[in-house]
């Protein structure tokens, strides 16, 4: 059976970790290949011995880590390398990068070490092409997936929308500061804002919440159903978001989803998320006010079906492009026709 090694240097709880867990356990992916998650030292991925037919990088690219990627390429010169870009996007560059030409040079140099580059959203792929960071003939788009079965089985909320949820790491990326400021301007003693997650900005965000008893910090919750099941709607005011797995999960759970529309969040607008514009206090306040005036339908909210093939089919297509002479479960031709 084909052996695929997925390299990762960050095992903290989050969307990437959950996606990799799904890759390793999904029956369709298991039929496709044997998947091994390999934890490697940050910036020195070649230090860990890897035995595989294909190596997939889920690493964050940096100038400091570039020599490590070159060593990885040299050590495995006969093995195809694929890179999945989980970290960077147009929104990331706008919010964080001053020396943009230098940063783009880094990405072009790093991507050139791989046979294929995978974008995690169509918006991210468009950015990669527009900035000439990768050639179209080596770029694929595969949106991350996790098991949504239990989320789809959650009871759908009914009646007025009163509890808003925000889920994610508490850092600048997620835009929870403007969200708290906007929520505090809303009237309604029965409104609630529940924030799930932890991170370096927690103390700052708690100060912003002040003595507003309607705002609760729930910390990290291991079971996503617990978080989504306790909310009527989910808001994502991210400043950058290459994909945004929370939006896919919330839509599967039948919750109203509000997104800033940055980067990969626009992919979710096509499947039912509501776009409210830039993540400013004014836009957030209006989006929250409008949403809290609505009522959830008593029937199940329309099921959001995928606008793309199943994950195993997409990976099969990717592997066929990487290894055109490879026969995978005898169905490569069907997957790519």
State the main characteristics.
alpha/beta; Rossmann fold; 6-stranded parallel β-sheet; 15 helices; 14 strands; globular
Can you walk through the features of this model?
- The protein starts with a strand and ends with a helix.
- The protein has 2 domains: 3-143 and 308-336, Rossmann fold (3-Layer(aba) Sandwich); 150-296, Glycogen Phosphorylase B (Rossmann fold, 3-Layer(aba) Sandwich), CATH 3.40.50.2000.
- The longest helix is centred in the N-terminal third of the chain and has 12 residues, at 100-111.
- The protein is an alpha/beta fold and 337 residues long.
- It is built from 15 helices and 14 strands.
- Mean pLDDT is 91; it is low at 297-308 and 329-337.
């Amino acid at each position: 059976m084909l052996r695929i090694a997925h390299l990762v240097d960050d095992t903290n709880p989050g969307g990437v970790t959950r996606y990799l867990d799904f890759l390793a356990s999904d029956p369709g992916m298991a039929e496709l290949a044997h998947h091994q998650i390999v934890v490697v030292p940050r910036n020195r991925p070649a230090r860990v011995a890897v035995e595989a037919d294909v190596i997939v990088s889920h690493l964050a690219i940096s100038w400091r880590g570039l020599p490590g990627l070159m060593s990885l390429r040299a050590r495995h010169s006969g093995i195809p390398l694929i890179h999945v870009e989980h970290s960077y996007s147009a929104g990331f560059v706008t919010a964080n990068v001053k020396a943009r030409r230098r940063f783009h040079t880094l990405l072009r140099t790093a991507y050139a070490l791989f046979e294929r580059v995978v974008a995690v959203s169509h918006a991210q792929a468009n950015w990669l092409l527009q900035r000439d960071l990768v050639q179209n003939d080596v770029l694929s788009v595969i949106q991350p997936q996790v098991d949504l079965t239990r989320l789809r089985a959650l009871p759908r909320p009914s009646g007025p929308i009163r509890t808003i949820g925000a889920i994610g790491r508490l850092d600048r990326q997620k835009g929870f500061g403007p969200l708290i400021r906007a929520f505090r301007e809303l009237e309604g003693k029965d409104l609630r804002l529940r924030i799930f997650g932890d991170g370096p900005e927690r103390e700052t965000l708690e100060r912003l919440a002040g003595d507003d008893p309607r705002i609760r910090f729930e910390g990290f919750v291991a079971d996503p159903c617990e978080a989504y099941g306790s909310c009527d709607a989910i808001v994502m005011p991210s400043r950058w978001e290459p994909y945004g797995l929370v939006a896919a999960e919330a839509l599967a759970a039948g919750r109203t989803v509000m997104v800033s529309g940055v980067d990969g969040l626009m992919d979710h607008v096509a499947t039912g998320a509501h776009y409210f514009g830039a993540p400013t206090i004014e836009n957030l306040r209006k989006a929250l006010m409008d949403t809290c005036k609505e009522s959830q339908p008593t029937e199940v909210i329309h099921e959001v079906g995928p606008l793309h093939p199943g994950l195993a089919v997409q990976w099969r297509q990717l592997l066929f492009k990487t290894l055109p002479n490879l026969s995978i479960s005898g169905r490569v031709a069907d997957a790519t026709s």
